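Quick illustration, no need to memorize.
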Amino acid sequence: MAPLRVEQYVVGPIQTNCYFAVNEDTRETLIVDPGADASRLTKLLEKEGLKPVAILLTHGHFDHAGGVEELAERFHIPVYAEEHERRTLEDPALNLSGWEGRETVYHADHYLSDEQEIDLAGFHIRVFHTPGHTVGGCCYYLSYQNALFSGDTLFAQSVGRTDFPKGSASELVRSIREKLMALPDEVTVYTGHNEITTIGTERMYNPYL
């Protein structure tokens, strides 16, 4: 089992959590949701001698995808997203990039399906399609490391907003109850904004569940 170290960096005007999921044996690293500050993230990766192998997007909003192109080009690494999120990434009206003053189109190299399992950086990853915040929002579950990268699906004692285009409160809560609440209590949840939490804590205290 590959040892996981997670580094958290808050980026951009909406204070998005970007994570480096580091395999401590090999230094191979997954970049999760690099929403902004690509040059700063690049410097951090290079300073630590980390080896980025892929970018994982939990969804396509600009505050999670804004730094994708620069990092992917700098390190020559692929970008992954859920298959239903292609339109969100490629449509500025849905990815909300105009909020920053410049409409932008984002891309992924690989689109994943619900329950698909992939191996990257020495980690076995299970993909959960969790629509509600966006049509193709997803979470990445590293079962052997008891880690879940939840994006804007599940927060500490809260859930993601559903008042953006294509959002659905009922779908979001259903996604969390059916997919995420089936996970063990000890799973650490690396959220898209604010504090890190656990499945057990959210099962007990999240008012939306």
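The chain has one domain: 4-205.
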